[in-house]
Amino acid sequence: MQHMKSKMSKKWILFTALFMVALSVLKANPNHLSKSKTETKMKDEKESIEAKEIHSEDAGNVALIDKLFIPAGSIDELLSQTKTVGKFIKTLPGLISQQAFESRDEQGNMTLITIAIWENKEALSKAKDAVQGEFQRLNIQPQEFIKRLNIKMERSIYNTLDN
What we know:
Layout: H1 2-28, E1 62-70, H2 75-90, E2 95-104, E3 110-118, H3 121-138, H4 142-149, E4 152-159
Antiparallel strand pairs: 1-3, 1-4, 2-3
């Protein structure tokens, strides 16, 4: 039982880490949710974050799918910084489910893929605002944190496909 709790806590921490990184991308382009079929790339001279945002007009569930590359030396700090925010995100309305998947290479670097299902774009937008407020309250600067840890990210937002 303790092992299962530990595994679930780790998955939640990984999801939170991703959500924190993803929100820093949202902060850079706050109007992205109102755009239709948008593709955005962020570049900073010393930072390598790639974000793909793909949207449609569908008002159904929204899947936030992120792929992060986290250097081995940054993993522990990323995970420890996201515990507090993770507890907060768990309380947000509109989050339906989440999953996190990890893989490590020979050097110990982590590739992290997370999938978060939100009720709709509005729920995701409200969650973004709430988490940004929590970052301010905790004095967390996500973009600086990502840059310092040299995290690379690809991000996509997908709507439910009607069949």
